[in-house]
Amino acid sequence: MVEIERVRYSETVNRDKIKEMIRSKKEKEMPKETEIYSCPECGSQNLVHDYERAELVCGDCGLVVDADFVDEGPEWRAFDHDQRMKRSRVGAPMTYTIHDKGLSTMIDWRNRDSYGKSISSKNRAQLYRLRKWQRRIRVSNATERNLAFALSELDRMASALGLPRTVRETASVVYRKAVDKNLIRGRSIEGVAAAALYAACRQCGVPRTLDEVEEVSRVSRKEIGRTYRFISRELSLKLMPTSPIDYVPRFCSGLNLKGEVQSKSVEILRQASEKELTSGRGPTGVAAAAIYIASILCGERRTQREVADVAGVTEVTIRNRYKELAEELDIEIIL
Q1: What CATH number does the domain containing 226 carry?
Q2: What's the sign of the alpha-carbon dihedral 174, 175, 179, 185?
Q3: What is the 3-state secondary structure (H, E, C) of the chain?
Q4: Pick from 61, 206, 243, 269: most CB atoms within 10 A?
């Protein structure tokens, strides 16, 4: 009996080895798929994926480069947001703007099950206790409490300033790094959060002045600047000086100026930068002066008071800067 079992075991092992050898041989013989980056006909890199026909088409010459490729999207279709949310089998993506990165579960406040049916009164007391303990365990220690308060403060300030999602994520990452390096000790949470938001604005190329950040925060401009310099030094944040050109679109939008004025302002600022007229001067004042000059040259004049209110500078600053620009760039202004 033992001999028969040994023979069967050896036959099974040999059969598995033969199957593995055949599989490895087939894998070696099969040609490896290479990703296509350009059209073999015209060399263009403008390749369009037509998912309805399962074809890869050149956008310039129309050649079908590849066909019958695998669609990696969902197998279901949705025609509005409600259908998409109902049929999706995954949650929201990970985000740094929530203290637990949005990975924990959340018990909804509505007393309904997954089918939308109302939960019986017998189970509501149990659900209430589960909901209460869920809120408690989401914030378990002092670090998470710090993050929960600071990130909500960051989100409030970013909403007040109208900042995009990328800036909020970057500010959250900067604040988390400051917490990991224990830079919060001895400083207010609001001050560090405001400084992280200011640093994120500069990193993402969406400049906001310290005065604007001060208006939406609960700390002074002096504290924000001091904390910003400290965390940028400790975290080795490489931030270039803000260019006056970055402020032009926002200021022109606030003054209801056309694209022609914006283009002329950018041109004036580039000429001034080549002659080093912008170095050592506040970028908002130089940008406001360039917009004031461009509005006059394009026939859409705005007063110095209007430009000063939008840019957050004084009329004297605009007057001094526009005289310097007009004199050095040989611009004739008819007042």
Answers
A1: 1.10.472.10
A2: positive
A3: CHHHHHHHHHHHHHHHHHHHHHHHHHHHHCCCCCCCCCCCCCCCCCEEEECCCCEEEECCCCCEEEECCCCCCCCCCCCCHHHHHHHCCCCCCCCCCCCCCCCCCCCCCCCECCCCCECCHHHHHHHHHHHHHHHHHHCCCHHHHHHHHHHHHHHHHHHHHCCCHHHHHHHHHHHHHHHHCCCCCCCCHHHHHHHHHHHHHHHCCCCCCHHHHHHHCCCCHHHHHHHHHHHHHHCCCCCCCCCHHHHHHHHHHHCCCCHHHHHHHHHHHHHHHHCCCCCCCCHHHHHHHHHHHHHHHCCCCCCHHHHHHHHCCCHHHHHHHHHHHHHHCCCCCCC
A4: 269
- Which structural domain range is residue 280 located in? 244-328
Residues paired with 47 in a beta bridge: 58
Residues of the chain where predicted confidence (pLDDT) is lower than 50: 1-7, 9, 13, 26, 30-33
With respect to residue 151, please indicate whether it lies within any of the assigned structural domains. yes
Question: CB of 39 within 8 A of CB of 65?
Answer: yes
Q: How far apart are CA 80 and CA 328, in angstroms?
A: 57
Residue given tokens 């002329």 in the structure block: 264
Angstrom distance (rounded) from CA 280 to CA 183: 30
Q: Would you give the distance in Å from CA 62 to the centre of its chain?
A: 35
Whichever domain contains 44, its CATH number is: 2.20.25.10
CA 279 from centre of chain:
29
pLDDT on residue 7? 43
Q: What is the pLDDT of residue 335?
A: 63
**What residues form DSSP beta bridges with 118?**
112
User: Which residue(s) pair with 35 in the sheet?
Assistant: none
Asked if residue 61 lies in contact with residue 41, where contact means CB atoms within 8 angstroms, the answer is yes
CA–CA distance, 47 with 39 (Å, rounded to integer): 7
The C-alpha atoms of residue 226 and residue 107 are separated, in whole angstroms, by 41
The residue assigned the tokens 């590849």 is: 66
